[in-house]
Amino acid sequence: MDTTPLRDAYRALLDAAGTVADSDATTVPPAGEWNADQILAHVSLVNAATITAVSSAASGGVTTYDNRIALDTWTIERVIALAGGNKGLRDRIRLQADALCALGGPMLSEAELDTPVPTLLLSHDSVLVDEPVPLRGLISGLAEVELPGHRRQLLALLPDGAGAEAGR
Questions:
Q1: CA gap 56, 96 in Å, rounded
Q2: Reduced to 3 states, what is the DSSP secondary structure of residue 143?
Q3: How far apart, in whole angstroms, are the C-alpha atoms of residue 16 and residue 12?
Q4: Sheet strand arrangement including 65-66
Q5: Chain centroid offset of residue 41 CA
Q6: Which of 13, 28, 103, 128 sits most deeply, having the most CB atoms within 10 A of its CB?
Q7: Are strands 116-123 and 65-66 parallel, antiparallel or unpaired?
Q8: pLDDT digits (tens, 9 = 90+) for 14-68
Q9: Burial, 115: exposed, middle or buried (Cβ in 10 Å; 0-12, 13-18, 19+)?
Q10: Is the pLDDT reported for residue 165 higher than 50?
Q11: For residues 89 and 95, what is the distance between their CA atoms, to the nearest angstrom?
């Protein structure tokens, strides 16, 4: 599996996170939305769940994928504290990206990438997916949907106009 799109999506996310962290403005997210640290902690938790699923498939174990823990407010705040804040979260995500690009790439066989993984994905209290998804779909979903969505979410925290400029 070519992990170039995944690596590119991580790079774009981390660039956006750095831009937000380096900005002088402290934009408060709209009600019900996350701040930059909460977004990064969520991504870190999603990464950990994906690494677990990939590692389980590679070891021949039974695996599932459930993102509910990555949506839990207490867990998100604990990850922020354990990582040491924004810089620690960005460092963690960078290392997780390296691991996923290595694990999800040439290390896995086509059969492993095609392993159906019982998946439960929620967003804003709505079920997005509740069915088996091939492991490769979990990995490509990070690159195509999850990471770009959180990149946009981070850039939206910048003052008006700055997010559009940074997104180019």
A1: 16
A2: helix
A3: 6
A4: 65-66, 116-123, 126-134
A5: 9
A6: 13
A7: parallel
A8: 999 999 999 866 667 878 889 999 999 999 999 999 999 999 988 888 899 999 9
A9: buried
A10: no
A11: 10
What single-letter DSSP state applies at residue 146? I
Phi, psi of 18 (to 5 degrees): -65, -40
DSSP state of 70: G
Output the six-digit token pair for 4: 């170039």
All structural domains of the chain: 4-166 (1.20.120.450)
> What is the SS3 assignment for 25?
coil
Length of the chain counted residue by residue: 168
Quickly state the pLDDT bin for 168 (edges 50, 70, 90).
very low
Query: Tokens 């997005």 sit at which residue?
Result: 128
CB 108 within 8 Å of CB 58: yes
Count of CB atoms situated within 10 Å of the CB of 42: 22
